[in-house]
Structure formats: structure tokens, C-alpha cells
Amino acid sequence: MDIYTALAYVVLGALLGAIGQCARVIVGIKKHLDEAFKIEERKKEFDKREDELDKKLREAKQGDKELIIKEKELILKKKKDLQWFKWDKLITSLLIALVVGGVAGVLGAIAYLEKPITPEFMITLIAIGYAGTDFIEGFMKTRVPK
Description:
By secondary structure, this protein is mostly helical. The chain has helices spanning about 5-60, 60-80, 85-110, 120-145.
């Protein structure tokens, strides 16, 4: 096997691993769309409370302003945390899938020396990207401190 064939296995593994992860992302997005509607309602409640606090802040005495400002900061933090779609999580997930798929491609190159790439092998790489990323993300959630 020459270097270009080995590199093709790695690139194929990385791309198919990312495709496997994309399938998982699509399922996750569908699941979270229902949650997004609830989040939008919650944001409206926070906006209303924020407007009330702004009005109170304009009318409040100096000593009362501190308490109102603290409550407003809390509302703004909660509102910021109400995102249903997180780009950083998506990018991290896809990068992990690329690496897992690339490793699977290396292993596939070793296992399939001088053999043609079959559809079964490609499906296996997709599944490895899906399952491997799921495993690594699950491990990171439980073992890596935040």
C-alpha cells in the first residue's frame, strides 16, 4: 500500500465519521426543536420581567437600586443560558467525529491492506463515527471536570 492509498483511508474515515455524527446531530436537532418553543416562551417571560425591573430602577431610591440590579443581572444570566442550539457543542462534536473516523480509517487501512473499499466498510466507518463520538462525549460529560 502506498502513502496515497493510506491517506485516502484516513480521509475517507474522517469524512464518513463526520457523516455518522451528522446523522446523530439531525436526530438531536429534531428532538430539541420542541424544547425551543418552550425556551422562546421563557425568554418572553424574562423580557417582561426585565422591562419591569428597568421601570423600577428608574423610580427606585439609591439603596433599593442595588437589589434591583442584582435581580436584573440574574435574569440576564438565565436568559443567556436559554439557548437551545449551541454552536460550540456542534463544532466540538464534529471535530471529535473527524478524529475518531480518521483513527478508524487508519485501522481500516491496516485491516484492508490491498483490498478494495466495500460499501460495508464505508457503513462501518459511519457507524464508528457515530458511536465513537457518542462514547467520547459521554465520557467527557462524566469524567472531565467542568
